[in-house]
Amino acid sequence: MRDACLRDASIRHCAGMKIREPIPGAPLPVDQPSIKQSIVHHLAHTRMRDQYRASASDVFHAVARAVRDRIADRWLGSTKSQWDDGKKRVYYLSMEYLPGRLLRDAVLNLGIESEVRGALTELGLSYDDVLETEADPGLGNGGLGRLASCFLDSMATLGIAGTGYGIRYDYGMFRQAIVGGAQVEEPDTWLLHGSPWETSRTETTYTVRYEGRVEPRVDPTGRTFYAWVDTQDVIAEAHDIPVPGYRNGVVNTLRLWSPRPVQEFDLALFNAGDHFGSVHKRNVAENISRVLYPNDSGPPGKELRLRQEYFFVSASLQDAVTRHLARWGSLDDLPEKCVFQLNDTHPALAVAEMMRLLMDEHLFTWERAWSITKRAFAYTNHTLMPEALETWPVHMLDRLLPRQLDIIREIDRRLGIEIAQGHDEQAQARMAIIERGPQPNVRMANLSIVGSFSVNGVSALHTQLLRERMFPELDKFFPGKFKNETNGVTPRRWIQQCNPELAKLITEVVGSDAWVTDLEKLRELEKHAGDSAFLERFRAIKRDNKAKLAAFLEKEHGFRCDPSSIFDIQIKRIHEYKRQLLNVLHVIHRYQRIKAGEKPEAPRTVIFGGKAASAYDMAKRIIHLINHVAKTINEDPEAREHLRVFFVPNYRVSYAERLIPAADLSEQISTAGWEASGTGNMKFAMNGAVTIGTLDGANIEIADAVGEDNILIFGMTAEQVIQRVRAGYQPWQLYESDTRLRAVIDGISHGAFSRDEPGRFRPVAQSLLDNDRFLLLGDFASYVETQQRAEQLFRDVPRWTRMSLLNVARMGRFSSDNTIRGYAKDIWGVL
Ligand SMILES: *Cc1c(COP(=O)(O)O)cnc(C)c1O
What's CA 753's distance to the chain center, in Å? Predict the structure, then answer.
C-alpha cells in the first residue's frame, strides 16, 4: 500500500482517497494583513482562545502556525520536485540535533520579518516577546548536535535534497540549575506545551526488532538464509520538522523517530486483573526515546543507549530503502541515488543493518550486499580522545542484536583475511573491528571506517592526527578514504539572526543581503578598516550588544557588570581538555595581583557557561569552583571594580545567541591536539570577538584566515604537547618554580574560595599537581602573558576595533555552506 502511494507522485490516491483539486492550492499570501488574519485565525480556531484568555504560549503557537502554513506550501512543493527530479539524496544520520528556537529562523528564511512584526504590533503584541516564549529543543549535548543543525540549514539553502534522521527524545539535554554554586540537573520538558513545528506521521511506521535468536534455514532454491526469530519488537513512528532554506523555496525534512509498542495493551493481563502489567510492554517500548544521554565525550556504555542507536538507525534505513524502492524499483543502484552520512559512530550499526536488510529482506548475496553497503556510507569522526571512541561489549550485542553481531563478525573475518598479508600481528589487532581477548568489544570506529567509502575529520589538524596517530594502518590500507572537511556554522543563525545590527551594517556595505548565502562577501568590510567613522559605527554595535547582555544578566540573574569592561567569554561543555580550569587559574592570579595592589590595564568581566555530564565529577567540581571564585571576587570591594566573574546557568543555543554578539574576547584554550575542531570559536570570530586560543582544532585555520596579528595565540602546539609528555612532564616542578602558580594553587587548595569548607576544592588542585593530564601548568605562563597583551590591545581602541572588524571580514570560509559544498563535492557527489 505504502509503495503504491509513494509510486504515485501525485499523492492524490493515498489511502484510497481521491481528491479532485491539486493540494496545495494557491500559496498563502505573505503580506501583513494576511499574516495578521492567520494569527487571529489560529488563536481562535487552533488554540481556541479569545483576546481575554490567550496566554503567551497560545500567542506563540498561533504565530508559529501562521508561519508554518507558509512553510507548508513550499514543503509540499520541495518534496514533490525532489521526487520528480530524482536527484541523489543525502541522509544525515545523527543521534543529536541542537536546532535552537525555530520561529525567528523560519521567519527570516521566508523573508517575512517586517510583516510578522507589523502584524503583531497591530495586535498590540511584541514580536521579540513572542520569540522569547519558544522552548529551545535541546536534543543534543553540544557541538556535534549543533553542527548537525547547521548542516541541515546549509543543505536546504544550497538546494541539496537532504534529510536529517534522529530521535525525538521526550526529555532532551537536562536543564542546569546552580544551587549553592553547584550544578543540579533538572528535566528538560521541551514538549510540555507541544511543538508547533512537528507533524506526527502516524502512518509512517516501521518495526524495529531486538533480542531473539538467529536460525539458519534453507529456501526452496537450496540457498541458506538466516531467520531472526522470537524478537521483541517496537514500532518507530515518524515526526517531521521542516527545514527551510534561505529564501529559495526549498524545505527539507528533519525526521525524528519515537517508539510505540507493537501492542498498545495486553488485554489478557488486563482482564486477569493485572492492570499495571497490561501496560508494562508499552513502558518498555517508550523508554527507548525517554531521554538523551547527557554524555558528550566518553560513551555511557549502557544498554539503553545501544537500543536507542539501533532504534533510529533501523527505522531510518527502512524508511530510506522503502522510498528508494518506491522511486526506482530496485536496490542495485542505491549508492548512486542515496548517501548516508554517519555523524560520529553513534549510527555505525547502520553498516550491519544495511547488510541485514539487503541479505535477509531483499535476498542479496553477501558480495552484492557488501558492494552496495560500502558505497552508500560515509563516516565523520569527531574525536581524538581514545576513551571517547565508542565500543560495545560483544556479549551485549549478542543478546540485543544477534543478527547484526553475526554480520559484524563476518565483516571482521573477511577484513582479517585481506589484512593478513603485509601487516604484523599488532597492526592486524589494531585494524580489527572486534578486539582480541576474552571479553572483547566491537570498535564502532573501525566498523565505520571499513563499512564506508569516505572517512573525514573536521579540521585540518584533526584529520592529520586521525590519520597519523589514531588509524595509521587503516589509512594506508584504504588509500584516499580519509579526507578533511573543516566544520562551519550557518551565518543565518550565527550572524543574521543573533546580531541584527551587525547584519544591517554588513548589508549596507555589501549593497545587498547576498552575504547571507555567500559569506566570502564579508571581505567587503576590509575596505573600511582604515575609516575611523566606519570603525566607530562598527564599535557601537558591539557596545550596544554588550549593554543589552549586561541588562539581561542583571534582570535575569541579578549579576551587574560594566559594559565598558572586556567581555571575556568561555561557553562550551565543561571538560578537562577544554581547560575552563586554566581560565580560572588566570582569574585567580589576576585577583591576587589586584589584592597585591596591581591594577589590571583594563577592567574585565569573565563569563563562563556550560553543562557538565551528570556523572563527570571533576567537571562538576570545576563549575562549583568557578561559582565560588566568582562569589569571592564579586563581593570584594577592592576587586569588583576591576574584575567580575559570572557563570551563566543552563547554557544552550538561545543563550549562545545572546552571549556571542556581546563578546570581546573568545576563550578557545583546549590542550593542543584534543579539540577536533570547535565551532564556538567560529561563531565568536564572525561576530567580532578576538580569539585567545591555542593552536588546536580549527583555531589554526582561523588564525590562518584572520592573520596572526588579529588573534592571540599562546601555548604549546600539538607536537610540543606530545614531546613534553614523552620527555616526562613534571607539573610539580612548575608549581615549585613559578611563584604565581604556587599562590594560585595554594589559594584553591587551602580554601581561599571555600571558607565554609576549606578542603572542598583540594582535589581540583591536587589533580593538577599529581598528573595534570592536560598540561594546564605547562601553558599557564604563556596564557597569563597573552591575557596581559589582550588587555593592552583592548585599551588601544582603534587597534582593537580594527582587529575585531578584520575577524568578521575574514571569517567567510567558515560558513557551513562552504563546508557542505565540500561534502557535496568530495564525498556525496551531489550539486
Ligand atoms: C556552538 C555550540 C557548542 C559548541 O561549542 P564549542 O566551543 O565548539 O565546544 C556547544 N553548545 C552550544 C549551545 C553551541 O551553540
Answer: 34
Q: Does the C-beta of 36 come closer than 6 Å to ligand 1?
A: no
Instruction: Give the model confidence (pLDDT) of 790-799 as tens digits.
Output: 999 999 999 9
Distance CA 422, CA 420 (A): 6
Verify whether ligand 1 is closer than 6 Å to residue 652 (CB atom): yes
Give the sheet arrangement for strand 690-693, strand by strand. 643-648, 604-609, 566-571, 665-668, 690-693, 712-713
Residues labelled catalytic: 382, 572-573, 578, 679, 683
Q: Which three cell numbers stand for residue 541?
A: 554595535
Q: What is the dihedral of CA 626, 607, 177, 297, to 10 degrees?
A: -80
Give the residue, by CA position, lying nearest to ligand 1 atom 4.
143
762 CA to centre of ligand 1 in angstroms: 29
With the most atoms of ligand 1 within 8 angstroms of its CB, the residue from 384, 571, 659 to mutate is 571
Report d(CA 604, CA 787) in Å as an integer. Answer: 11
Contact 400, 307 (CB under 8 A): yes
Report how far apart the first and last C-alpha atoms of the chain are (Å, whole number): 33
Residue 608's SS3 state is strand
- Give bridge partners of residue 489 from the DSSP assignment: 815
Distance between CA atoms of 70 and 67, rounded to whole angstroms? Answer: 5
For residue 252, report the phi and psi dihedrals to the nearest 5 degrees: -90, -175
CA 80/CA 249 separation, integer angstroms: 12
What is the pLDDT of the chain when averaged over all its residues?
95
pLDDT at position 299 is 67
Pairwise CA distance, residues 770 & 753, whole Å: 21
Distance CA 704, CA 441 (A): 41
Domains and CATH numbers, the chain: 86-101+136-485+822-828 (3.40.50.2000), 545-814 (3.40.50.2000)
Q: Is 526 helix (H, G, I), strand (E, B) or coil?
A: helix
How does DSSP classify residue 513? G
Alpha-carbon span 676 to 102, nearest angstrom: 28
The predicted pLDDT at position 15 comes to 56
Phi first, then psi, for residue 227 (nearest 5°) are -100, 130
Q: pTM of the predicted model, to two decimals? A: 0.96
Cis peptide before 24 (omega within 30 of 0): yes
Predicted confidence (pLDDT) at residue 3 exceeds the cutoff of 60: no
Q: How far is CA 612 from CA 271, 289, 366, in A?
A: 47, 21, 44
With beta carbons less than 8 A apart as the criterion, state whether 683 and 571 touch: no
Listed residue (340, 344, 342, 343) closest to 298, CA to CA:
344
Handedness of CA 649, 655, 656, 661 (dihedral sign): negative
Whole-number pLDDT of residue 11: 42
Angle at 12 between CA 9 and CA 13, to 5 degrees: 95
In the numeric block, which cell numbers belong to residue 601? Answer: 590595564
697 Cβ inside 6 Å of ligand 1: no
